[in-house]
Specification:
The structure holds two protein chains of two kinds. Chain A is built from five helices and 32 strands. Chain A is mainly β. Chain A folds into four domains: about 160 residues, no CATH class; about 120 residues, no CATH class; about 80 residues, no CATH class; about 110 residues, Sandwich (Immunoglobulin-like). In chain A, the strands form seven sheets. In chain A, strands 3, 5, 6, 8, 11, 14, 17, 18 and 19 form a nine-stranded mixed sheet that branches. In chain A, strands 25-22-21-28-31-30 form a six-stranded mixed sheet. In chain A, strands 20-13-12-23-24 form a five-stranded mixed sheet, with no helix packed on it. In chain A, β5 and β6 form a beta hairpin. By secondary structure, chain B is mainly beta. Among the domains of chain B are: about 110 residues, no CATH class; about 100 residues, Immunoglobulin-like, CATH 2.60.40. In chain B, β24 and β25 form a beta hairpin. Chain B is elongated and about 95 Å long. Classes of the chains: A mainly beta, B mainly beta. The interface between A and B is large, with 69 and 68 residues.
């Protein structure tokens, strides 16, 4: 995170290392990594370093680590530093990685830094003012000398907010790589799609983008960015944990600790719900990011190209890793191409199913996430899709409509609901209804009968290309027979389930077709008679 | 207002907008989808070899950010859009474009723009004997998008594109379809489920019978090239004195190619229908052991008198309804079964003569079967 001094003071993460060793006073040798920090919550009049650093270890010391004997380290750790810190070390992060989930407001941050330890007891202070870090997720581990460095405690000091202090017992003196991980709220990503249908509506170019947005309160620079597709189970919202007054509770009623004059924890941070800026017409005006595009070396010549997004399955999740690193400044958004496949065979289907869509004919465009459709290497994340139709050879397009895509595993079919169509219609007409075969019980009341209905299904295609229809009819009983004798040859019929029949057919451009079926429903005791006959 | 600018400087955060704003070239306003209007505009970007940042911003216009697309037209293999960034607090985006050379590159920028749309209205003048309509259709372009377009091509889902300028808050009506001789049929419709049966029962009031003009969207009408979008239709009639009278207006629904539309213009009081049920009896009654009726048939007789007081012949469409299972025992006029419970009669009525109105009688004798109480 650079420029560290400016960004970190405004909103970000701070590190302070204080080391204690054998009560020997040390001097600060490398002042280039030492800064005075002035923050309202921890302000304290600075005093001369040489006199104040008694008991503190050197922080800018050797490039190479030295191992000290066990007996040189006192058993008892030093008392935690008081509520004020005057020495601040800002070690540069070596690597930053964010793993952003799309199913929850959750990002795992992995921050690798070189910290300079003294042999003995060290306090490492981590501060995250004005960011949305879940303090209960903070974790620190050494990436080297694991058997000689013991992270013993994480202390959330009294009367200070957004601070955690790790107590480290180290047999190592010098520079050691550490990895700090934590959860943060406010980074998010979503996928969205563009589909461009060919003029004959038989193929489609599918483009998928990922849009990453950063409302975490923190700038990220040169971070490896990874995106997770999958449903993660969380007991608590990260934003709620980040907003707690005490990391693990208890929640304190307002006013109880007024005398401490602590102020609101997230003063200055905007409410998560209001982070998406929306204009008064409900349209998104902007999102949060900037940064450089990808560039790679090839054949010795420098050229620019799209960033690759590597995709791999892990457990029940799918991981997208964006090539290289990204800059994710706070409040910026960035859109990256993730998929671009041409000539995907598609099928338009006009469905009529009163149970699901009422009395309207709904247009669907379908394809599958499989190799036959030039896809199928990875799942498709959920997102919205905008469909356009190419109208000429000059790549002009016409807007067809929008649809939501659910998460599509490999080999699963995708069906886009484009809504009711006005140029293609299905009109079922009940042409005749009668009853027969009455049965009466011992009291002379009606016990059973048959209902016979004759339906005309009129299919109208006023478009200039053929239309595929799928008509689903619900008979509201599981005891029925269908008279197929009158059905036109080009209509395909299938029994969809115990109560539904499904008819499919193609109707040529600008024509109508009417087919007929007769259904006989067995009611009351006639149902029993019918099932006995079937046995 | 939409702005496009090339950017300098490496830091996107401290963005500087500068250089000559590329002029908008060919612009297409595609009004074929009532849900959203697609704008396609071409601009020439002066790209330098390497990375170029192009800022696209909009103020006080209603652009859907996810819909903004950039298509490279001249050198699609050598010019690539790498990514798009959205700066905070601005209605803007920054395209990062890599170019293999210095090009004056034509690009097409397309986006969905809201609050610019079109209405369709119709004006039809019938000739004096109401056999033909002179139909004109107007496109009403309403631009409240916040953006001015100079010489934009307007494209509907049919017909040729036409060029027009449109300014923000401007509404423009344009004639775009003329069909001077559309055959028209005047239709009177009496529906037994909607209108009173016996004028005697309606004290001192006329029962108006709805009158419509029926037209077809087909070649015979000089139409049939494309679906006619729905819209307000005002109907006039040539009065024979080089003037017209206003007949009425209706909202036409979309008329697909080959389909018909009926435009309701008002009610006629010159055709009178008097309908009465003359018989309604239960027959073939089946009772249970307790003597209660469980099933029966009916014996029903309906008569209707239709009178035409006009000095012209007329065709009345009469709709009758018989619910459930039924059989016609006798009917003196021909009918078409529209569905299981609906009968449609087309009754030719001569003009009135000196003796009085032209009269026709309908008699329907039918049985409903397997009726349950």
């Amino acid at each position: 995170m650079a420029p560290a001094a400016v960004i970190l003071l405004a909103a970000g993460v701070l590190f302070v290392v204080q080391s204690y060793w054998q009560n020997s006073a040390q001097t600060i040798e490398d002042k280039s990594v030492t800064h005075r920090l002035t923050q309202p919550a921890v302000s304290m009049a600075p005093e001369p370093v040489a006199t104040k650093t008694e008991g503190l270890a050197s922080v800018g010391v050797p490039a190479t680590a030295r191992i000290v004997p066990q007996e040189d380290i006192p058993d008892k750790p030093p008392f935690a530093p008081a509520s004020a810190i005057e020495l601040v070390v800002l070690p540069k992060p070596d690597q930053m990685q964010v793993t952003i989930y799309n199913s929850a407001d959750l990002t795992l941050v992995r921050d690798t830094r070189k910290l300079t330890l003294k042999a003995g007891w060290n306090w490492l202070q981590f501060m995250w003012a004005e960011t949305m870090i879940d303090p209960t997720s903070l974790s620190l581990r050494p990436l080297e000398y694991a058997d000689k460095i013991d992270v013993q405690q994480l202390v959330y000091p009294a009367r200070l907010q957004d601070i955690g202090r790790w107590l480290i017992r180290s047999k190592v003196e010098g520079s050691v790589s550490f990895e700090i991980t934590y959860f943060i709220s406010g980074l998010s990503w979503r996928a969205f799609y563009e589909g461009i249908i060919s003029p004959d509506e038989k193929t489609m170019q599918l483009k998928n983008y990922v849009r990453v947005q950063n409302y975490s309160g923190q700038d990220y620079e040169n971070v490896q960015t990874r995106l997770i597709i999958g449903q993660v189970h969380l007991l608590d919202q990260i934003s709620l944990l980040a907003g707690r007054q005490y990391p693990y509770g208890p929640e304190v009623e307002s006013g109880e600790l007024e005398s401490l004059d602590r102020g609101s924890k997230f003063k200055g941070l905007r409410d998560k719900d209001s982070q998406e800026k929306v204009d008064y017409f409900g349209l998104e005006l902007n999102g949060p990011m900037g940064g450089l595009g990808g560039n790679r070396m090839a054949g010795g010549a420098f050229f620019y190209d799209f960033k690759e997004i590597a995709k791999e399955g892990l457990s029940d999740y799918f991981l997208y890793t964006i090539e290289g690193t990204e800059d994710l400044p706070n409040e910026w958004a960035k859109r990256l191409p993730s998929l671009d496949v041409s000539d995907i065979p598609i099928k338009s289907l006009y469905k009529y199913d009163e149970d699901r869509y009422g009395r309207q004919t709904v247009r669907f465009v379908s394809f599958a996430n499989d190799s036959e459709h030039k896809l199928g290497t990875t799942p498709l994340p959920n997102g919205t899709m905008k469909l356009y139709r190419q109208v000429n050879d000059e790549q002009n397009t016409s807007y067809v409509g929008g649809a939501d895509i659910k998460y599509i595993p490999v080999n699963e079919a995708v069906e886009l609901n484009l809504g009711a169509d006005t140029l293609v219609k299905v009109e079922p007409v009940l042409m005749d209804s009668r009853t027969e075969n009455y049965l009466f019980n011992d009291k002379g009341d009606i016990a059973g009968w048959d209902e016979i209905e004759t339906w005309h299904i009129k299919l109208t295609n006023t478009r200039d290309i053929p239309a595929d229809f799928e008509v689903t009819r619900n008979f509201n009983t599981d005891s029925w027979d269908l008279d197929m004798t009158d059905i036109a040859a080009q209509v395909n019929y299938s029994k969809h389930d115990s109560q539904h029949a499904r008819f499919t057919m193609v109707v040529a451009a600008r024509t109508e077709h009417t087919f007929q079926y007769q259904v006989k429903k067995y009611c009351g005791t006639r149902k029993d008679v019918k099932s006995k006959q079937a046995q | 207002m939409l702005l496009i600018a090339l950017l300098t400087g490496p830091a996107v955060q401290a963005r500087t907008k500068l250089v000559a704003l590329p002029q908008r070239d060919a612009t297409v306003i595609r009004l074929d989808n009532p849900a959203a209007t697609l704008i396609e505009e071409e601009r020439i970007l002066t790209l330098q070899k390497g990375l170029n940042k192009v800022d696209f911003s909009w103020q006080a216009v209603f652009v859907e950010a996810d819909s903004i697309r950039l298509t490279i037209l001249d050198h699609p293999e050598k010019v690539k859009l790498l990514n798009i960034s959205y700066p905070p607090g601005e209605a803007a985006l920054v395209w990062e474009i890599a170019s293999e050379g210095d090009y004056a590159e034509t690009v097409r920028i397309s986006y969905l723009l809201y609050h610019i749309d079109r209405l369709v209205t119709y004006k039809a003048v019938a000739d004096k004997d109401e056999s033909k309509l002179d139909l004109k259709s107007y496109l009403i372009l309403r631009n409240f998008s916040g953006e001015d377009f100079d010489k934009a091509k307007i494209t509907l889902d049919y017909g040729d594109a036409f060029e027009v300028s449109t300014a923000h808050e401007e509404t423009k009506q344009m004639l775009f379809l003329k069909a001077p001789t559309v055959p028209v049929t005047k239709v009177w419709t009496w529906d037994s489920a909607r209108l009173p049966w016996d004028p005697e029962q309606v004290e001192n009031q006329n029962i108006g019978i709805p009158v419509s003009y029926r037209i077809f969207n087909n070649k015979d009408s000089g139409l049939g090239q494309f679906a006619l979008w729905g819209g307000k239709t005002r109907l006039f009639q040539d009065d024979g004195h080089e003037s017209t009278i206003f007949l009425g207006e209706d909202n036409a629904t979309i008329i697909p190619v080959g389909q018909k539309a009926e435009l309701y213009i008002g009610d006629s009081r010159d055709i009178v229908v008097t309908q009465r049920k003359m018989k309604d009896a239960q027959i073939n009654v089946r009772r249970n052991n307790g003597g209660g009726v469980v099933l029966f048939d009916t014996d029903e007789l309906i008569t209707a008198k239709i009178e035409n007081f006009k000095d012209k012949p007329a065709v009345l469409t009469m709709i009758q309804h018989i619910p459930g299972q039924w059989e016609m025992e006798e009917c003196n006029l021909e009918y078409k079964r529209k569905d299981a419970a609906t009968l449609e009669f087309e009754i030719q009525l001569p003009a009135r003569d000196d003796k009085g109105p032209a009269t026709k009688e309908l008699t329907m004798h039918y049985h409903r079967r397997n009726v349950r109480p």
